[in-house]
Amino acid sequence: MSEKIVQLNEEVIKGQLKDLVRGSVEETLNELLEAEAEKLTQAARYERNEKRQGYRSGHYRRSLTTTSGDVTLKVPKLKGISFETAIIERYRRRESSVEEALIGMYLASVSVRRVEDITEALWGSKVSPSTISELNKKAYVHSED
Fold first, then answer.
1. Does the reported pTM lie above 0.70?
2. pLDDT tens string 23-47
3. How far apart are CA 105 and CA 144, in angstroms?
4. C-alpha distance from residue 82 to each of 16, 37, 58, 86, 123 (Å)
């Protein structure tokens, strides 16, 4: 009787799992943004009713770096009312845990070049030296307080 031997490529499986998690995070955040827009307008997409507060005017894409990788958000645009989401701070491009990790690396005396390499390996995108410098300034100000 011959035994079947199954070989698994761990790197491929890890990559597929990471993509699955990143996709799930992206989908969930986009659904939350849509739900927020529905609540603000008091109507679903294409729904007409008397209580409606504003109108949809498409959406714009925005990138956000999370611990699962870069995700693309579809932020709804509204007419008649302003849309300020409670999910993600305005102008924020990175999840706060990502910023905390960058500051932690700085405090552990990791070089800027090494931080770039680490961020690319962990989240799939490099963080620029100027961004690292700005975060380091924030950490320095908070450590003096």
1. no
2. 888 898 899 898 888 888 888 887 8
3. 18
4. 38, 10, 14, 12, 32
